[in-house]
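Narrative summary of target 7.
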Amino acid sequence: MKADLHIHSCYSYDAMSKPETILEVAAERGIDMIAITDHDNTAGWHDFDRLARKYPVQVIKGQEIKLINGRFVDGELLALFLEKPIVSKNVPDILAEIKAQGGIASIAHPFCDRRGEFRAFDQIYDWSHLAIEVRNGRIYKNRNNEMAAGVASMLNMPFTAGSDAHTPFEIGSVMVECAGASIADLKRAILNRDVQVVGEPSSAFFSLVSNFGRLGIAI
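Modeled conformation, tokenized:
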């Protein structure tokens, strides 16, 4: 099965994909599972719950959480396989919340110099149920993704990958593949490092296009 583990809907301030459009595109492209990881909110979950039954696509509930440290940003975490929103603000409590739900936390684009590298490693005290995003569809320097993959390999950590789509055109550009048919199968495969990463980053042009989402434009 194929899964894109990092997708933003128009409920993210900087994205423009309507929930139904995301599901339509995923179905057309033969994607079995998608993770909805809107920035610091889960407002879109209700729409996906309502719409997903119309499509052969399973939806993983998630969030992308910005780690604020005073006036600075220490990076972002993907919270995947959630049952309810994450409300904590500091890294140890965020990770504890995710783990308590049986979810997986993945360090998003950890070495992306364009968006800022992940700087909260010293705040991680529990490394269980923690993964690294080793390929992100909005990283345009191969070296940035290669560094993430190298760390995951060196530390023998679970890993995830996703398009980081903010527009419909990017969906499925980067995915993971594994055996199985259910969300539980996928989660188990990630924790066992039994997934394969496929695809390549999309065009940087779409990063410019997605700025129309900041104006409230959704397609």
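The longest strand covers residues 72-80.
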